[in-house]
Amino acid sequence: MSELLSKKEKLKEILKKLHAGENVEELKKKAKELLASISPMEIPLIEQELMQEGIDVEEIARMCDLHVELFREAVARKAEAAPEGHPLHTLYKENEEITKDAEKLALYAKAMDKEENMERIKELAKELRKIGFTHYDREETLIFPYLERRGITAVPSTLWRKHDEIRIKLRQLLQFIEKGLKERAKEKAMEVASLLIDMVFRENNILYPTLRALLTEGEWVAIKQQEGEFGFYKVKPKEWKSNAKPVHPYEIYAEITQEQLQQLPEEIKMIMKETKPDRKKIEREGDIKLDVGYLLPQEINEIFRNIPFGITFIDSDDRVRFFSGHRIFRRTASVVGRPVQLCHPPKSVHIVEKILKAFKEGSRDKADFWIKMGDRFVYILYIPIRDKNGNYMGTLEIEQDITELKKLEGEKRILDWK
Amino acid sequence: MSELLSKKEKLKEILKKLHAGENVEELKKKAKELLASISPMEIPLIEQELMQEGIDVEEIARMCDLHVELFREAVARKAEAAPEGHPLHTLYKENEEITKDAEKLALYAKAMDKEENMERIKELAKELRKIGFTHYDREETLIFPYLERRGITAVPSTLWRKHDEIRIKLRQLLQFIEKGLKERAKEKAMEVASLLIDMVFRENNILYPTLRALLTEGEWVAIKQQEGEFGFYKVKPKEWKSNAKPVHPYEIYAEITQEQLQQLPEEIKMIMKETKPDRKKIEREGDIKLDVGYLLPQEINEIFRNIPFGITFIDSDDRVRFFSGHRIFRRTASVVGRPVQLCHPPKSVHIVEKILKAFKEGSRDKADFWIKMGDRFVYILYIPIRDKNGNYMGTLEIEQDITELKKLEGEKRILDWK
């Protein structure tokens, strides 16, 4: 405790100088030794001390940014495990932002007797929820498969479970604030702040070093290509170029080398003996390669046959080429090859022609209709099928009985399934 | 008119004897000559005469069945152009039933001052509407393509237009009855009866002889295989067996021979000079043959990419094999090959396992969920994909934004398109 106190005194000194406008670079040099001895985990404690001494919360909160500026050097040592723009660098950078905001959250929570801090917590909690669908989601969806493929499944699964805990508690926090439950909100905010910082530590010390030891450049290239889908938490990654060919998880059949094993964090080394890499070959004999993934012709046929709506495709020559699915309007094999103009009652053919013309010109992207058939409500949708360059390849008709869909109310989530 | 009167007298005689219970076979023998000289078109006129003489309408209506019994021999001469169970035989047989009911309709309409006849017309009109989606629909969908392929498109198109007229007028008739518009209902009923009989004549004298002259046994086999999809008007066709391989319209590249040309009705012969057979080859290089029709791999890819919902397929080993479409939940290529159990938040994995188990055992055929995402209403459906023998091949997830679908009201039909 005396050590903490002396650290606090020194930190207080530095913070005051920063606040007075002293040059950050100068200060960093002076404080180098001190900074090396302080772990980010101690910061909340020191802050609490400062607060108890009557320093204004807002003052301290504003200093949070300066903390990070001060600690950047220490944190950067980790981020610089990879060049700027590299997905690993971005992950570390986001964790800096997360740490900063988690600290702010704790600070506001501690000073919740001030009315305005409730509003601040609310805004911040909304911000923090974005971590769930950027940083965490990216790890869960994009990065974990590379570890799973190497047999490391327990660590991703534990992290995911803990991510979800944070997601839930942030939601609860917002609910407590909404209901004006001040004490419970305070408690929850403190809990979330602590879980967030705990997660930063787990990731920085276990997950990221593991990724660094195992993932090849090509794998990072694939991650880089896809990470934009999810977005980032308060970070805008720079470009990062590599000549390596992107490698997806299902393309890996790698052994973990002795050298890699040595570089792994102790926690991972321990479990590596029990892991079994996933060597399943994904592409099969006869597989058709699609944009994302593979299907056998028989799978394609049965997917189309089992889907709960009818689909019919006419090609760019206006010929019916294919139909399948659960149909509402009867259709028989005799229609294959038939010009679509001959498939409609003569009086509506001119509309069919107009729709096709609009699709071919690119002036329309759908034509939809809805009709009642007895007690059923039927939705009929025509969409042009275009290739990635926008070239017209044909038109798809989808017919769907939406009677039951229209009646759905409320929610039924996966955990409600019986 | 005097000839008609004398026919009427003779017919009246026969009908009275029939009504008195005389043997049908005996009567038929006696009336053979008379029957040969009466065309079904004359029957309504004769009936009208009988009515004017005060014979009860119900009496005459009940005799309608006997008419057909009497005229069967004459009509059978046409039906027997093909063996029982043959699709052509069935078409002729349905036209007998249609004639009978059209006559009844005219009879009831003529005697509409009797209150109960309004109800009878209503019931009969409802029955007659079935012609539209059995007999006519079968011709339009299943049979016309065989003529179109040979370049005969004008005749099918004219017939279809006239079928649609009948469909519309039958709907109008029912609306007039619903609204109690007696005079207009009467007029419409007479009109419909006359159009129905007119259509029987066109079909029996032009369409069917043309089919008989042109279609090969294999084509009839294909029609026979599919005709059950549509059903029949008051006829239950027997089995008809043939060893010929079914031939679909898109498999025909036939020339019309001189011999066939000779057999065609005059109306068709006249237009044959201007027709050009449709020789488009339907199966292309690289086509994948599906249950009904063909698609190129690129078409399959683009269809999946353009559909307005997200789909994801996991195979029978629970591996994600493919996803596409307009997604609501983000998914990246990293998921391909990933065991589905690892794709879900750990806390809901046990439900995923339960759903898959139920699908594999065959105890469930869907699992659906619906959630709100901001102002969007999202429907998530899991269905097992099974082959035709019921073997589990995998599970398909469909995610659909149904916000707009839920708001649809009323109808928007193809003719409303702008």
Describe the structure.
- The structure is a homodimer of 418-residue chains.
- Chain A has 418 residues and is an alpha+beta fold.
- Helix content of chain A is 56%, strand content 11%.
- In chain A, the strands form 2 sheets. A 5-stranded antiparallel sheet of chain A has the order 4-3-7-6-5, with helices on both faces. Chain A has a two-stranded antiparallel ribbon with strand order 1-2.
- In chain A, helix 1 (2-19) packs antiparallel against helix 2 and helix 5 (87-110) packs antiparallel against helix 8.
- The model of chain A has no long low-confidence stretch (mean pLDDT 87).
- Chains A and B meet through helix 6, helix 7, helix 9, strand 1 and strand 2 of A and helix 6, helix 7, helix 9, strand 1 and strand 2 of B.
